Queue: 3 jobs
Job 1
Amino acid sequence: RLYQIPFGMPNCEDESEARTLYLVGDFSAPAEFFVTLGVFSFLYSMAALVLYLRFHSLYAENTKLPFTDFCVTVCFAFFWLVAAAAWGKGLSDVKAATRPSALIAAMAVCQADGVLCNAGTTPAMGLANISVVR
């Protein structure tokens, strides 16, 4: 929900007053889908572990239970692939929306003649990139 994040932009004409710039975009849906699927996968894994360890005889005697477990696991694997792809796309969109050059281009004060705007440092996205790989 980048549209909720304000940036104070200096006004070169009047130093005491700053203008506010809001980012554009809402990329929360892919992240929420990714996290929700991760939570459900964890809960299913814990339930399956209880079933395997506590009710092993029920699991061994019932022929439909292993097949059902296999089908649910395949569905989780497919949705995990979809969620990882969605989160990867969402992250690339967040990177594009928060790129320093894009922010500078959106600031009207930086477009005036004789004004030189510099972003300083590039934001570190290493941990976000790792979250997509995992």
Note: The chain has one domain: 1-133.
Job 2
Amino acid sequence: KVGWYNAVLQPAFHLPYPEDTLAFVILSTPSMFDKALKPFVKKERSKIIRDPVDQCVSYHLSRVKEKFPDQRVDVMFDYEILPSRKPKFLAQTAAHVAGAAYYYQRKDVKHDPWGKKKIYGVCIHPKYGGWFAIRGLLLFPDIQVLFLEQPAPVDCVSTEEKRIELLEQFNFHWKDGRYRDIIEVKERYSEEQRVYFATPPAERFRLLGLTQEAQ
């Protein structure tokens, strides 16, 4: 429910819908690269002009919208920002309140070792660890779900030591990706996918076999 999300945030970040409005948080799993992105690039290569992943997600969510011709469906993407420069929605908070992934933050550590340093939080999925992404939000403004029960996210990094290790790795060593394996995972990004996401965005077109003209 939109109300679960709004309840944990300051009014400036609230979504402008009634609190019982139904919403879905959209995640991409490690297999997205092979099952969605590569077929999309092959099929739509002449139309790819910005980020291929963003366009792929947009394409698939527009197809979901088409499945509900009689419903109003609003889509928000993780990369969208408002004129105020605030993100349209806070993806990690949305994933946490929906029970999709646990958003570990500084407040989840009792004995904080970081002093005045800025520490960012990170979501961990019980099956994929950090090998996933939050891509968007689907909202159904005309559907009110008064009796929907809120599922708690799985607290899979439950010890103080592990939480400190997770936040340390994410904040200070995020490039090596070790934080993604803070728990035992069922599936990881393929080597090809890791290389893709480790490559600067401007050079990713070449990896996908897209020409400079397409870019």
Note: Residues 52-66 form the longest helix (15 residues).
Job 3
Amino acid sequence: FSPNPDSSWDAAYERELQTFEDIGDAGEIWFGEESMVRIIRWLEKQKVLLDSSVLDIGTGNGVLLVELAKSGYTNLTGIDYSPSAIQLAEKVREKEGLSNIKFKVEDFLDLSAELSGFEICIDKGTFDAVSLNPDDAVGRRKQYVRSLCSVLKPEGFFLITSCNWTKEELLNEFREGFEILEELPTPKFCFGGRIGNSVTALVFQRK
């Protein structure tokens, strides 16, 4: 793992941006197809209105929002601190001909004031990346929760997919201001006779 995680993500997105410009391929979907399907199914099952405001935290190449737009959702915003990621996401959006997705370069730990009032926030791996940063990981996690409270409306939903944290750990991280609604099913793996989950997916509601 590089000493500065930020620069390695940026470099990864710059490579993907180049690839997209060369061959029109959106590159890695960091958490794979099934995690996007899981999120969209949950929103549909909850009968979340199609014009509900959705924020994708650490949107990367924006593919999740593209899938949400194709499923009929119309009020979509994606943020990422990497300008290369946002450029890539905008190119993907243009290629798909979708106009109802907004992308912004934003650091979730240092947000601009106009980002607020979202009904749904989605995180696939961004909290993981924040937690891996060796500089003041605990402080960064606390700031993440504060930022989440400032962008998500009371009663709003927060859907998090994590590879690093167990359900119990996530419940502890988000205990202030959030309550768990449900755990979403994720693929199980078996290791040395013990069954575990490589991915945890939870839905919280802001109190």
Note: Residues 26-206 form a domain with the Rossmann fold fold (CATH 3.40.50.150).
